[in-house]
Fold this protein.
Amino acid sequence: MSRRLGGRESETMPMVDAVYGAEPKAEWVAAAQARLRGTLASQIPQVFYDVLPRSPIGRVCVAASERGVIALDIGPGEQDFVARLERRTRAGVRRSAGHVGQAMRPVEE
């Protein structure tokens, strides 16, 4: 069966349909999606935070990126702090005492 292409019959359309018309295999789609997720995740900046629940001045939340401390809040709840970080940085925000430990030391003292 031929279709009209540009106002005339095309003999190549059946060949194009044969190549592009078939659905891709599910495992090909899954593999491509996994590679895409990995690539995108590696390009999203990461922000790490930790919470000092008790201090003489109250609860202290500290966030840092690869560039250093980017936020320090006194008193907010953890969920509010994380929500503000996500809105402000558009980064992946994750709690990690190991990544924020150096920045947290002066606050703990």
User: Anything to note?
Assistant: Residues 44-108 form a domain with the Double Stranded RNA Binding Domain fold (CATH 3.30.160.70). The chain has two domains: 3-42, 44-108. Strands lie at 3-5, 8-10, 46-52, 60-65, 68-74, 92-95. Residues 26-43 form the longest helix (18 residues).
